[in-house]
Amino acid sequence: MVRSFAPARYPECMDMDVARSTPALRVILPGGSGQVGQVLARYFQERGHHVSVLTRLPYAAPWQTVHWDGENIGPWTEYLEGADVCINLAGRSVNCRYDAGNRQQIYASRIHTTRLLGRVIAGLADPPKVWLNASTATIYRHALDREMDEATGELGGGEAISKWRRAPRTWEFSVGVAKAWEAAFFSAETPRTRKVAMRSAIVFSPMAGTAFAILSNLVRLGLGGRQGSGRQFVSWIHEQDFARAVEFLIRREDLEGPVNLAAPNPLPNRDFMAALREAWGVPNGFPAPTPALELAALLLRTESELVLKSRCVVPGRLLDAGFQFDFPEWPEAAEDLVRQWRHRDD
Predict the structure, then answer these.
(1) Is the dihedral of CA 161, 179, 28, 20 positive or negative?
(2) Measured torsion, CA atoms of residues 55, 79, 44, 243, in degrees rounded to the nearest 10
(3) Residues near 248 by Cβ (< 8 Å), separated by ≥ 6?
(4) How would you write the pLDDT of the chain (346 residues) with one tens digit per residue?
(5) Do strands 267-268 and 233-234 pair parallel, antiparallel, or not at all (unpaired)?
């Protein structure tokens, strides 16, 4: 099941001299104030492109920030006119309990916002050349048996997760949102704009408050053992490869439709946590059995699905198109992220 790809650099995306020699892009990032938005804004800004982040709360940054509410047409639409690319990242965090209020916000912040952008882009005189819309690797079924790529991957919904259990209702909700999100995106009538749905795995960044920070804190506290059975697969991607893959998709005019943004080698949770412990120099970690995880999720007001669902997602279309990962293997990615984290504390 594991694929091996040697780290390499994709010249068009990573060579800074080449990046600076290409025409500057106008990049618009609706909902780009979170972790992934900051990764992309910084990446494109450092390469000489003009970046505008559409956000409810404009903030001081090296790039431009513009107010929008994600619900209504307003002056922000002028920034999309003549833009090269729109990368929509809008969506309420799923790190919460899926009660009725949070479900409504999770759904509306993704589907309604995508529909709004579709209406706006359809009405522009000079719409963006390409629209990349956030999606999620969670759209695929719980998979312990095989990899899920774009061509043969099976979407989730109603599957059994063991001989005795079907997927919990909260998992059904997540898959339903993902499907509705992509349906809203692809149903938008934007014939002059190429569209790519980014089915992203967890993006790991050495930033406070991220998944990497949370898992690293567990490791350093001696709690970084396997979670649940430890058999469930973790799909992941290093922030550097995520940003490079996004630029690759912008440049490749022949690519559209759903694209998995994930490293080519997902691995079981027990191996994932072991590699993270080794990167931090922590030899052991207490495991977290499923009942303990369920209780912790309840106390922390989040959902255990985030660590218990098996996501075995691979980037079939990226690999077929020639994209090469700088960090195809988790141990090397973990070492780099830990090194960056330690450097930021110096």
Answers:
(1) positive
(2) 60
(3) 10, 12, 13, 318, 321, 323
(4) 434 333 333 334 444 444 555 789 999 999 999 999 999 999 999 999 999 999 999 999 999 999 999 999 999 999 999 999 999 999 999 989 999 999 999 999 999 999 999 999 999 999 999 999 999 999 999 999 999 999 999 999 877 777 677 778 788 999 999 999 999 999 999 999 999 999 999 999 999 999 999 999 999 999 999 999 999 999 999 999 999 999 999 999 999 999 999 999 999 999 999 999 999 999 999 999 999 988 888 888 888 888 999 999 999 999 999 999 999 999 999 999 999 999 875 5
(5) antiparallel
d(CA 97, CA 75): 34
| Distance separating alpha carbons of residues 340 and 325, to the nearest angstrom | 18
> Which domains are present in the chain?
11-201+237-263+314-328 (3.40.50.720)
Three-state SS for 318?
Answer: helix
| H runs (alpha helix) in the chain | 11-14, 16-21, 35-46, 100-107, 113-122, 169-187, 211-220, 239-251, 269-280, 290-299, 305-308, 316-320, 330-345
- Residue 55 DSSP symbol: E
In 3-state terms, what secondary structure has residue 203?
strand
Structure tokens at 19: 């990046």
- Among positive and negative, which fits the CA dihedral 148, 154, 159, 164? negative
Helices (H), 47-159: 100-107, 113-122
- pTM comes to 0.92
